[in-house]
Each structure stands twice: as structure tokens, then as C-alpha cells.
């Protein structure tokens, strides 16, 4: 059976509204999350991701309300991330109607949370989000990745919205996350995020080769070709995008029709 590739719109939430900026600054309001998600539902999106980018505890009530409204109205899987630090946090989000949770900073601080979450709710519910950036500092323990210009680097995991380096090798962390119970990797490269120059193909392909679970490519879509490149050369199982969908540059349907025309199996 040929596995279809997924197209996933991502909605960044702040105070219960969808916002879009560059590197989390210059945030602009992009609308009501449930209305936007409903539009993507009609366009044939395979999933929707909600990321609570402020993720402070006092906002949890708002995100719960948004999830409940979305779950009541949508007929597609919903992944929710941002500020989830405990099994109780995860349970709240799943009870509100989410199908999966995305853990990033909290998984780096406490990798056992992936294991405990997988044991409690199933690996299919646990997404490990990994934000990375290129690092050329010599590191004997890191796994080298070849770049298009012939040079090599290693990719470092960064946390707190890309603001804090960890010294952790991204390929090694992806493999550990899989071993600990993650059912999927959501990979965002700080090198390409917001650039509209395409996904970071070298690290997407390296992690796709290294793990046996689905990898979602994120960060940098600007053209239809970029989606194709993410699947063909990045070997991704899904491609995630935000602004090209929110501001109507493409519909999900247009992306899928383009991909099908180029031989990528998608669900239309």
C-alpha cells in the first residue's frame, strides 16, 4: 500500500487568536482559529496543528476553549502544542478534543515525559517537536550533515522558541525521542523558518533516514515546488506550512493537485 503524504496547516495562537510573525516578533492577527481551521478542513487538509506560542499557564483556559470548539466542528486530526509540562497538561488537551500533543522544550528538559505520555495515552498521541539550527563548531559527538555547497555542519537542538541552544545533536535527539515513545517528529529549522526559501532539506532528510516514525517538515515554504522538495528530497512524511495558507497564497487543494501532478501520493 502506498502511504499518502500529508499537508498540514499550522496555526500559531496567542490569547486565543491566530497570529503570524517572523521569529515570533511583529505578530499580526490572522483570524479566529476555529474559522481558519474550518476553512482548511473544507480545502482537504489532512491535519491541523495549533501551537500556543505564549503558552503561559493563565492562558490555558483559552486554549482549552479553542480546542473544544475546533473538535466540535472539525473532521480532521488536531495536534496541539505549547507549554505542556506534565501528564496532567497532556490529559487536559486530549480530553478537550485534541488527537495528538506536541512536546518541545519540555521533552528536552524531561525526556521521560515522552515515555510516560506514550504509556498513558499511546505513541500515536505523542509528537516530539524539534527546533534546530546549524552549528559549525567542532563537535566529535555530533552527527555531521552534508550541505549543498559541499561543506558539513551539525544541527543543534534549540528550545524556548529558538532562543536557547542546548548543545544536543538533532539527529541523535530524534532517535532518542523515537526510542522513548514519540510517534512522530515535527522538525523546524531556524535556518529556513519564515524565509520562504524552502525547507531545510539536509536535516529533514538526515532525520527521516535516521528514524522509523513519520517526520513532518516545517519552516520555509514559499512555493509549490518547496512542498515537492520536502517530500522528494527531504523524504518527509508530511509538510507543514502557515503563512502561505493563512494569507491565501495557496489553498491546500491547490498544493495537493500540484503534488499529485508530480507523482506524490496525496489524498484529494
TrEMBL record:
EC number from the UniProt entry: 4.3.2.10
Catalytic activity: 5-[(5-phospho-1-deoxy-D-ribulos-1-ylimino)methylamino]-1-(5-phospho-beta-D-ribosyl)imidazole-4-carboxamide + L-glutamine = D-erythro-1-(imidazol-4-yl)glycerol 3-phosphate + 5-amino-1-(5-phospho-beta-D-ribosyl)imidazole-4-carboxamide + L-glutamate + H(+)
Protein keywords: Amino-acid biosynthesis, Cytoplasm, Histidine biosynthesis, Lyase
SUPFAM superfamilies, sorted: Ribulose-phoshate binding barrel (SSF51366)
Gene3D superfamilies given in the database record: Aldolase class I (3.20.20.70)
One GO BP: L-histidine biosynthetic process
Cellular location(s): Cytoplasm
UniProt main location, coarse: cytoplasm
GO molecular function: imidazoleglycerol-phosphate synthase activity; lyase activity
Known pathway: Amino-acid biosynthesis; L-histidine biosynthesis; L-histidine from 5-phospho-alpha-D-ribose 1-diphosphate: step 5/9
Pfam family, one: His_biosynth
NCBIfam families the record matches: hisF (TIGR00735)
Listed HAMAP family: HisF (MF_01013)
Subunit structure: Heterodimer of HisH and HisF.
Purpose of the protein: IGPS catalyzes the conversion of PRFAR and glutamine to IGP, AICAR and glutamate. The HisF subunit catalyzes the cyclization activity that produces IGP and AICAR from PRFAR using the ammonia provided by the HisH subunit.
Protein name per Swiss-Prot or TrEMBL: Imidazole glycerol phosphate synthase subunit HisF
UniProt organism field: Methanoregula formicica (strain DSM 22288 / NBRC 105244 / SMSP)
